[in-house]
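Re: How this chain folds, sequence and tokenised backbone to follow
How to read it: Take the token row as a discrete description of the fold.
Start of record: The labelled sequence and token lines come straight after this line.
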Amino acid sequence: MTTPAAFPAAAPVRAVIADDERLMREQLRARLAEVWPELQVVAEARNGLEAVELVQQHRPELVFLDIRMPGLTGVDAARQIAQMTVGDDEWLPEIVFITAYDQYAVEAFEQGVCDYVLKPAERERLAITTQRIRSRLARRGDPGADDGQAVAMPLQQLLHRLAGQLNPGGAPKFLDWIQASVGSGIQMIPVAEVLFFISDEKYTRVQTATTEALIRKPIKELVDELDPALFWQIHRSTLVNVKAIAGIGRYLRGRQIVSLRGHPEKLEVSRSYTHLFKGM
């Protein structure tokens, strides 16, 4: 058995388990008790919709999601969970997918910000997964920490890839144009020219190098309609065009800020998204 590394004492980590098979939930809970006795499983969901509701209710630090569940897949549930916020900053749990399909793990999870457990949950593999999760949780809140990995694939980009693997015939077609209000008129703006999208309570600002426009579409909807390889979410209210990023700096309080090519505005990166720029 792999022995987890020692970690400093901290508040107990809470988890939600979602799987439509009761025996699988029970087995995972039992295995977790063996490899991570301090972990508190606060709720169990039988489908993706329940998972989203329970995560919103309990705000756990860790979520286990079965890839294939009725009503809402684990990937779709993860996309909704990724849009949840608390207070003035993002809150984002660590996500571990439960899958019987090894190709997903090999092709996607090892490159991304999520982890995976293969069915049935084997003690050795689960110990490795939990060790990585514990290490990532321990580093949260430390802006200077280096996780020793290459730049992680953004969460939404990974989820888009997984959605395409689960339903290859229904891969999403991303937006090429944005219809937006400019002054008293309507303008069609090529998505490739957009530097960033930033939302307030009612509107989302669409900013190009020469034009500022408004749309009535929230960031959580745009995330699913824009190519995640081109637009990264860096804050609950902000999507930035990767090609428009000129550099990454820091505020005095340690927060990362993004400077842009062709525009003087600076964009703040919340703690939940600082992993995007490791190694830059």
Q: What stands out?
A: Helices lie at 22-35, 48-58, 74-81, 102-107, 123-139, 155-166, 219-225. The chain has seven helices and 17 strands.
